Amino acid sequence: EFVPIDVEQTANESIGFPALAxxxxxxxxREIYIKCSPSVVSITSESRSGSSSGSGVIFSEDxxxxxxxxxxxxxxxxTVLLADDRSQPARLVGSDPTxxxxxxxxxxxxxxxxxxxDSDDVYVGDDVVAIGDPLGVEFRGTMTNGIVSAINxxxxxxxxxxxxxxxxxxxxxxxxxxxxxxxxxxxxGINTTKIGTFTDSAGVEGLAIPSAxxxxxxxxxxxxxxxxxxxxxxxxxxxxxxxYQRYYRLPAGLYVTAVxxxxxxxxxxxxxxxxxxxxxxxxxxxxxELDTALYHYAAGDQMxxxxxxxxxxxxxxxxxxxxGKAAQTS
Length: 330
What we know:
- The structure is a single chain.
- With 330 residues, this protein is an alpha+beta fold.
- It has 8 helices and 20 strands.
- It has helices at 7-10, 29-36, 69-72, 211-224, 242-247, 264-267, 287-294, 323-329, and strands spanning 40-47, 50-58, 64-67, 77-81, 87-96, 101-106, 127-132, 142-157, 160-167, 179-182, 187-194, 206-210, 231-232, 235-239, 254-259, 275-279, 282-283, 302-309, 312-319, 321-322.
- The strands form 4 sheets. A 6-stranded antiparallel barrel has the order 1-2-3-6-5-4. Strands 7-8-9-12-11-10 form a 6-stranded antiparallel β-barrel. Strands 14, 15, 16, 17, 18 and 19 form a 6-stranded antiparallel beta sheet that branches.
């Protein structure tokens, strides 16, 4: 016997979408900007080779700011420009290259923190806006709008897969670290890059790290200073040029310039001057290749590592330490 159903109520649920409801707290674009712009900051990262800039989001009123790791990656000092034109030096609290997130802190206690929403409640077609510095600090506070183009978009970024929100809201490099905001004025993602950076597309679509990931990573950084489970090998190196390979009859590999004390590499006897040839059969030539290879491991994993030293090739099996704990004990 068939039972009558309310077609209008169940239409969306039948294909896996929640029942749609009027959101009483939906804001106009102007109201979104008024609510959210005080929580968006400009970040300048200074190093000996120059400076770079991006955007950030105030996470708490006592001075914590979340941004992209790649915004501060090469920096030696940082400056945060607030929406009220105050310029504040900032310290790096912690970072996580795997998720492309970092936390800075400025000496202020009267900031306006952003309201973070739940990225699990985001659906294709939702209205969104982005606020940030699309072309540098001179264009700070720019707002663009669009829709969510896709969710759970798996994108390969330097050898690792990131699960991101895709949007057609106009983004440029300076938007990195700034917020992607829903129609209620809640941050549902941190803008990280454009698809065109990693593919052959025209780069008209933007990508954002979901707020659920952001809140988890920032919480770990603030509570323990690092993100659990990230592997730490402890090797820093530089590419061995073809000239040096031929002149000194050396194999192609990563010339080790530093080994962190107490690291997995130090435990098996690797020292500066060694040449790293491979890990688990994957040839390593540059620091980027090494970092990319490590994205496929977790703390506690074992790997076979091959090095060259003084005319001899040597192999060792090591267990990867946890990044944060190794840094704290070294």
